[in-house]
Amino acid sequence: MAEDTRAFFESLSTRGYEPLLHRVSGSYRVDIDRGDGNWQIWRVAVDHGALKVSEDTSNADCIIKCSQEEFDRLVHGHENVVAAFLQGQVEVEGNLGLAQSFQRLVH
Amino acid sequence: MPATKTVSILEGNMFVVSDLRGDIDASPTETKGLFAFDTRYLSQWILKVNGQSPNVLSTDDLQYYSAQFFLVPGTGTVYVDADLSITRIRAVGNGFHEDLTVLNHKADPVDLDITIEAAADFADLFEVKDALAKKGELYSKVEGGQLILGYRRDHFVRETWITATAPEVNLTKDGLSFHVHIAGHSEWTTGIDVRIGRAIGTKVFSIANYRSGQDRAALDMGKNLDEWLAAAPRLTCDWDPAERIYKKSLVDLAALRFTPGIVPGGSLPAAGLPWFMSIFGRDSILTSFQSLPVTQELAETTIKALAAWQGTRVDDFRDEEPGKIMHELRYGELTAFQERPHSPYYGSADATALFLILLDEYERWSGNDALVRELQPEARAALNWIDAYGDRNGDGYVEYSRRNTETGLENQCWKDSWNSILFADGTNSKLPRATCEIQGYVYDAKMRSARLAREFWNDEKFATDLERQAAELKRRFNQDYWIPDREFFALAIDGDGRKVDALTSNIGHLLWSGIAEEDKAAACVRHLMSDELFSGWGVRTMATTEGGYNPIGYHVGTVWPHDNAFISWGLVRYGYRAEAARIAQGILDAAPYFRDRLPEAFAGYPRQRTQFPVEYPTACSPQAWATGAPLLMMRTLLGLEPTGPRLFVDPAIPDSIGRLELLDIPGRWGRIDAFGRGRVDVTQRTDPAAAREMALHLASA
Lengths: 107, 701
Prior knowledge:
The structure holds 2 protein chains of 2 kinds. Chain A is of the alpha+beta class. Helices cover about 35% and strands about 30% of the residues of chain A. The two termini of chain A are about 20 Å apart. The mean pLDDT of chain A is about 90. Chain B is α+β, with helices and mostly antiparallel strands. The longest helix of chain B has 21 residues, at about 460-480.
């Protein structure tokens, strides 16, 4: 659900730092297809684990695209990013290694 | 299963296995095909000339990434024409490229029908192994000048795209055909590209851009291999096979390199062809460890990749726990749909300790302390896993029992077949199992981590704590695992708290890790060198005296080169140089029987009985840690030990090997040479003739 998604990204913003990403620097853009022609777009910039979240449509090192339903599955831990990517449920543009690290934000 | 000869070419996790003609005609359960990312992208690729399969003149696979097939038209019932020859030159790389050429040796022109039947079953490697049926839909179409073979299951789409350069090509849903006219004394040729693709969203993309035509990936690979070989130390030896074995190891290691997406630009060793072309925690770590005298790059990438994949949460399906190092990563359909847990799977009880061991050993060789400082959180998480999760019942030992009871691994040590951890009477032990070598690895990991804590993490207290824990583990282990009446360490302590009392090669790993007390180590060495364990070629995984012993049982009697390499290195640690040399010589003696490539395992028959080593039927080849074994053995024979900023050299080389030199060994010292002369007598028996020889040897020394 869109509210859950908002809550998830806001929690990242509150967290401010993710120790599991201490070796990661780069930016994500997450494009969530809400199914009614609308997209919810979030941007997460990571600098050695420090997180900066915005609702920004500018380009990023790694763009992750998926449906709202799929994003819910990832956030609730029903599926992991790797499996979803292999299955074609999640589309990745740009840095694939960064996409793999995204799992550590939704753990 | 009939033994059919195959030719394999590979690059990273992509490989082509064909018959000697270059044809692929795979049954559901065999491994012929074009494989990439654990998926079979071609299961049929059959060349016919005028309806007949050609006959093989010769096949050349001198390069790991390319092969050449020299053929003549098949005779069938009607003799066609012996004045034609056919060559197929194939190179793998993001699919494969094939140059098909037909030469007409006659003065008269000739008209030919040339066809290639093509089909793909898109089997997941797990399906090939277990013969499972597909759940999605296969299709085939000709579109935009290419033949597309495809498979769709929901959003999961995989496609194979086939194109040919010759204008005569006629594409159908079943393959390619060419109606060709070749003038006298001339030739006809076509390039054929087979590219692999997969869906990302609604579009299908080629996984990487493959440059077709003459300027293709193979050239880059050749250059890459040359550079790899040029960067490796040079080995010279009086005993001729040593140089060939060493070269073969280097080339195979190059072939097994795999670039994980998570560490751009780096490469690490995949576990083996054909089943295990992927990152494996244990296999990649042990192979990287073995390779340190030759290159430190593989270890660096392995460490970084495994750190990036380190477990972060408790997940029963993947056997994942915080701090745990993964076991295996896969990319096929069953992994995608979570019908298998390999995304990644964490069912390995030793990889976490081995990760720490490699981190320390890597720093000793490379001097890359920056990485050790950077990975402090990961190393601490690994140490925490050992105590908080690895030790499941709080008894101070790491034991395993899978969380995923459906598709998880029952045995999570290197001897991972279900029937490997047996009592002396041959009966199976109960889970959870705490195998002995894992306790040794934990001891070593804590001792090494103490050094890292003291020297790089500026945490003396943590270092002291780790040393105290390691000392306590060693003290308890030597009591709890020791079997006094037989004088060796139990293979494991099982779920009922019983000592699993079979005599196995695992006791050799206790020497590698240093957990065995000196007097107990001496008893273990006697066992390791006894006829019951030592076959003459190497130490068997299980002694002939045990109820479960089977000379062709995967982990209960065969001889594994990597196992022996680590045992031999362990013998060096405890000062048993002659014994170490004897094992190294035995294993190296076996290599020429396998065209200088040590197999994963071979049968445990006594050397005196068979005279030659008997290959284990379904083993991988090349297999990474078997490929690494000769490299660690060279280290053993030369006694190479990084000590502070220098490389300490203390050779103990069999007299049968003679002079051994390893020049330009890379490391924190820059480049250094090591050499030694054979002075160790490794004669197995002091029979009268041998004794005379020895006397002569001593007299002339």
